[in-house]
Amino acid sequence: MKVIINQSSNPVKADLRDERVKSPGFGKYYTDHMVVAEWDEKTGWSDAQLKAYGPLTLDPATMVFHYGQEIFEGMKAYIQPDGGISLFRPDANAKRFAKSAARIALPEMPVDFFVQTVEELVKADQNWVPKNVGESLYLRPFMIATEVGLGVRPSNKATYVLIATPAAAYFNAANAVTVWISTEYVRAAIGGTGEAKCGGNYAASLVAQKQAAEQGCDQVVWIDAKERKWIEEMGGMNLYFVKGKGKDAKIVTPKLTGTLLPGITRDSILSVAADLGYKTEEVMISMDDWRDGVKSGEISEIFACGTAAVVSAVGTAKSAQGTWVTGDGKPGPITDQIRATLLGIQHGTIADKHGWNKRVI
Ligand code: PLP
Ligand code: COI
User: Fold this and answer.
1) CB of 74 closer than 6 A to ligand 1?
2) Tens of pLDDT, residues 142-168
3) Is 236 close to ligand 1, i.e. is its CB under 6 Å away?
4) Which CATH architecture is the domain 177-346 placed in?
5) Are 102 and 69 a contacting pair, CB within 8 Å?
6) Which of 177, 219, 288, 311 has a C-alpha 20 to 30 A away from that of 82?
7) Is ligand 2 within 6 A of the CB of residue 308?
8) Whose CA is nearest to atom 3 of ligand 1?
């Protein structure tokens, strides 16, 4: 499989594009191109087509509209000090995309083919990559079930689409986010789809996110479905807890039990924190541990991490059981250090000793 290049004949004019890239927001503007590939049970994957960004035309009986057979990924391309562009761990996204596909009964896309589509889109739309540290070109690969029919069974056709949007920080790094720990709704149960990056997980989360907003919170935090006490993750991010302070601090994150999304940022931070000299651990953390830890001061910082959000401090947590504030409610020094280190690696200003960056240009 290869990517066939068809340049857009009608790209956004350079001055308007540059204006958009300068204040990109998140998901506000889309680049000039997209990539589309088709899969059919009989013939497998087609070549991918890179072409002008534009609408998809689908029959109303297309399966994805009815039973939600859809998966996606989120990854970023970062400007480098010499003006080049790198992707961060694209193979990890490709592998997770294949795992998500397997869970949702969609076809697995070969890792190299997936990465090739991403590289070609970044090359074609390289002028859409923002120039500031902390900004990037956010890439959104997704796959939908495209067989036409209403029978509830795995689709025999699928369409892969890749789009891109210039992105600023998802949250303002100077502020800590406030979270609502939902004890009413759950995100995922063992045997469900929590480990997969499928649209359905997010659809199911929206009512709790709405409740969080009604409580004046930015994000929802999920607890486990069975015992209703173990902290799992945040809306679209994993969580980290800093225990103790300074050089002796221990940085812990909820264990992957099969219901959390295995975040690539989460995984990277386990290495980055160890490189910085901190002890790290994947553990079970309960709501009581959160409450007691911030009360006693043992938990000195909490942060969330993900591709879109990078690293964001978590300040106030609210739940049906009360309100708990971490430290002084503002981003702490270890959160800032981890954020700066990760961004430094991604932007090529700190040595990439794990070989995470994949140079595209
Ligand atoms: N958890 C959920 C539910 C997510 O949607 C995301 C975002 O992708 C993450 C965690 C963080 O994953 P990553 O670091 O791979 O972006
Ligand atoms: C990401 O970080 O890429 C996410 O998927 C989070 C959210 C925007 C869904």
Assistant:
1) yes
2) 999 999 999 999 999 999 999 999 999
3) yes
4) Alpha-Beta Barrel (3.20)
5) no
6) 311
7) yes
8) 236
- Alpha carbon of 61 to ligand 1 centroid (Å): 31
Query: Tens digits of per-residue pLDDT, 230-272?
Result: 999 999 999 999 999 999 999 999 999 999 999 999 999 999 9
The three-state secondary structure class of 178 is strand
Is the shortest distance between the CB of 220 and ligand 1 below 6 Å? no
Bridge partners for 45 per DSSP: 39
Q: pTM of the full predicted structure?
A: 0.98
> Does domain 3-167 sit in CATH 3.30.470.10?
yes
d(CA 326, CA 340): 21
The structural domains of the chain, with segments of one domain joined by +, span 3-167, 177-346
CA of 121 to the centre of ligand 1 (A): 22
Kindly identify the ligand whose nearest atom is closest to the C-alpha of 89. 1
Strand stretches in the chain, DSSP E: 3-5, 33-40, 44-45, 48-52, 70-72, 75-79, 85-88, 136-145, 157-167, 177-182, 219-223, 231-234, 238-243, 250-254, 279-283, 299-306, 310-319, 322-325, 357-359
pLDDT at 316 (0 to 100):
96
Calpha distance 5→124 (Å, rounded): 9
